[in-house]
Amino acid sequence: MPISVAIVGSGPAGFYTADALTSSGDDVSIDFIERLPTPYGLIRGGVAPDHQTTKNVQKKYEKTALKQQVRYFGNVEVGRDLSLAELKDMYDAVVLAVGAPRDRALGIPGEDKKGVFGSADYVGWYNGHPDFQDLDPDLNVAAAVVIGVGNVAIDVARLLSRSKEELAATDLPEYAERAILDSPVKDIWICGRRGPIEAKFTNVELREMGKLAESVSLIKAEQLPDGVGELPERDKRLKERNLETLREFSARKADEKPKRVHFEFYAAPVEIIGGDRVEGVRFERTRVEGGRATGTGEFFDIPCGLVIAAIGYRSDRIEGVPFDDKQGIVTNQDGRVADGLYAVGWIKRGPTGVISSNRPDGVTVAEHIHNDFAGGAKGAKPGRKALEKLLAERKARVVSFADWKKLEAAEVEGGGGTRPRKKFTTVQDMLDYLDRNRN
Ligand code: FAD
Ligand code: NAP
Fold first, then answer.
1. How many CB atoms lie within 10 A of CB 136?
2. How many domains does the chain have?
3. Which protein residue has the closest C-alpha to ligand 2 atom 36?
4. What CATH number is associated with residue 11?
5. Quick one: pLDDT at residue 380?
6. Are 117 and 141 spatial neighbours (Cβ–Cβ below 8 Å)?
7. What stretches in the chain show pLDDT beneath 50?
8. Is 288's C-beta closer than 6 angstroms to any atom of ligand 2?
9. Same domain, 189 and 282
10. pLDDT given at position 104
């Protein structure tokens, strides 16, 4: 009997784990349990719609999904359709790969005003994620503030600044494309509480902001330090490149293009101002000492009708699993959570790192599973057969990988050859399509 493994979540971390397990030479049987009908996690629902080449990694994941040892159970949610305890009873090993899908709170007065969104919700909306397709953010605003200076903040600002021609090759859902193109927004602010050296964005993404068709990126020269200071050699090179790019932005003219993206550093948000709706953000000017921001007691406001906080993510607690509240992750030791229970990706490490950063987690957990089950405990639990029986008893509407391929083919066809795809944005639409196309 093979070692039965359930991987909960089919994002990059789940797929790298399945890939490592199926390449290990161990006799394994792997089942993905994914709450959405669609696989690939943030590759589909996070990575920006104008970065299609990044999304190509899913072709590699598909090869793993099609391996003979692997089965996909889409539209099955742990916590809704079955409990983790039930899954642990059925499988030798359970791997949590559920990511960090919630927004971190700003923790400042006024953040519940209308027009204030977290990036998890807002990015989910423009990526057609079923949980957020009806978010309906009002983009009928002259100015928007993005809080945070990571790559997600850049994604959000860039998508708001794109021209009609630039958006035409994306897989933005129609509702999001229409809202962006109809928006009268002219000024977009990207605000960091520390300085340009401490910013988290990477240089390729920053440079792209200098090449937008209808938006010019700007920064006040006085916000740029003379040099990057003492840093390890690799960091130094990366930060120097960012500084060089920002210097170019400081020489640009505000009226070069119809829209402006303003980089504003040393600006810690202290309050969202306005009535029922947001009318602006109040910031405290900071200075950075030893990498830490300290308030100077000087305050200023940026008027705006839309705020997107791109300040990072947090994971959900999972019933019966030890959780580290401070770090917002499942308590684990190098991926081990408890006997037969493991964690990989953002639920294991927290919400940082690019797609490939999740690969080592998968490799490590595959090694743990190899070591833990090599000694005879192998194949002790029924795995797939028991899952299929339970889901049938509960009349769960399972979406298989073959079903997903049908949905994908329909999406690609809907793209009409000019766009990568036209996404289904509700689970019901996906299920209805599958019902109409049963064979
Ligand atoms: P996820 O990708 O979030 O996958 C988790 C999966 O678990 C999801 O499919 C979810 O539906 C499923 N799930 C959750 N709960 C349950 C449950 N209870 N039952 C069953 N299934 C469940 N990196 C890059 O290299 N390039 C980029 O351009 C890039 N863009 C990004 C853009 C955004 C907005 C964000 C937030 C991140 C971006 N990243 C990018 C980082 C990259 O996406 C992450 O490193 C990676 O997705 C984390 O993988 P994961 O598998 O841990 O989580
Ligand atoms: P991130 O890189 O950690 O950036 C978060 C930003 O929010 C930082 O600037 C942080 O500032 C700021 N912040 C946090 N709390 C704040 C608060 N209370 N008030 C004001 N600012 C606050 O996170 P991310 O942008 O969400 O990205 C997540 C991961 O996905 C990253 O590893 C990223 O590289 C990756 N990603 C990659 C790409 C790509 O490769 N193209 C695209 C998107 C995402 P401090 O530094 O001061 O805390």
1. 10
2. 2
3. 151
4. 3.40.50.720
5. 86
6. no
7. none
8. no
9. yes
10. 95
**Residue 351 CB–ligand 2 contact under 6 Å:** yes
- pLDDT tens-digit series, residues 157-173: 999 999 999 999 999 99
CA dihedral for 33, 35, 36, 39, sign (positive or negative):
negative
- Ligand 2 in contact with 42 (CB < 6 A)? no
Q: What is the pTM of this model?
A: 0.97
Kindly report the backbone phi and psi dihedral angles of residue 19, in degrees, each rounded to the nearest multiple of 5, phi listed first. Answer: -65, -45
| Amino acid, res. 221 | A
Q: Are residues 91 and 148 in the same domain?
A: no
The CA-atom distances, in angstroms, between 98 and each of 48, 167, 193, 364 are 20, 30, 30, 17
To the nearest 10°, the Cα dihedral for 376, 381, 384, 388? 170
Asked if 133 contacts 426 with a C-beta cutoff of 8 angstroms, the reply is: yes
Q: Which residues line ligand 1 (CB under 6 A)?
A: 8-14, 33-36, 41-42, 46-47, 51, 54, 77-79, 97-99, 123, 152, 155, 345-346, 353-355, 357-358
What is the distance in A from the centroid of ligand 2 to the CA of 118? 12
Q: So what's the pLDDT on residue 375?
A: 59
Q: Output the DSSP codes for 329-385.
A: EE--BTTEEETTEEE-THHHH-S-S-GGGGHHHHHHHHHHHHHHHTTTTTT-S-THH
**Rounded CA gap, 184 and 143, in Å?**
9
Residue nearest to atom 29 of ligand 1 (CA): 47
111-114 CB contacts, 8 Å cutoff, 24+ apart: 111/272, 111/309, 113/272, 113/274, 113/275, 113/276, 113/277, 113/278, 114/138, 114/276, 114/277, 114/278
Cβ-based neighbour number of residue 128 at 10 Å = 25
Q: How far is the centre of ligand 1, averaged over its atoms, from the C-alpha of 321 (Å)? A: 20
Give the number of other Cβ atoms within 10 Å of residue 395's Cβ.
7
Separation of 81 CA from ligand 1 center, angstroms?
A: 21
Residue 214 contacts residue 163 (beta carbons within 8 Å): yes
155 lines ligand 2 (CB under 6 A): yes
Ligand 2 in contact with 269 (CB < 6 A)?
yes
| 261 domain residue, yes or no | yes
The residue whose C-alpha atom lies closest to atom 39 belonging to ligand 2 is 151
**166 Cβ partners below 8 Å, 6+ apart?**
50, 212, 213
Q: Best of 43, 151, 270 to mutate for ligand 2, by most ligand atoms within 8 A of CB?
A: 151
Range of the domain at 15: 3-100+315-399
